[in-house]
Please model this.
Amino acid sequence: MQETGVSHAEMVPLKEVKSKMLSTPHVLVGGAIGRHVRAPYLALPLALVSHFALDAIPHVDTVTFFGIGGAKSNFTTTVDGVAAAALLLFLARGQKRWRWILACGFLAITMDILAMVLVWFPHASRLSVLAWLYRLHAFVGADMRPSDWPLGMATQILILGLAVFFLRFAPRKMSRQDA
Model:
């Protein structure tokens, strides 16, 4: 990959990073896409794009309350990530498309993983593709104040409920692959 002279500080100052949705809605929406979109060449990019769509919806998260880094932010982000993985594994169990559910769930959260890698390893921003993805990810986001938490959490609860419904309960058209 090509290196650039772009420093981490030049990319997007961390204090300007907009609030990002919790991991759990991203992962579950990605998993729902993996369950319902039959064609992998569509499911995988849709799972990735779903990340940006969800970040554009007004919401609150650990960045809203704790900023980036620090013990509280790292702890709540870790709890959210573990909960997201556990819930996705639980909802994918016993389903014929479980591999696609897991793959799309993981792909749907990769932008946040990338952002954390660049926070922890700023020198990785020298790779132009990572710097570009980071700038793109930082551009999308719905800023909310901590006082807006009822609306910010309500949007995420609604998304979680819909994602769980589509992951476990919504009927899926049967194809020859599924038979």
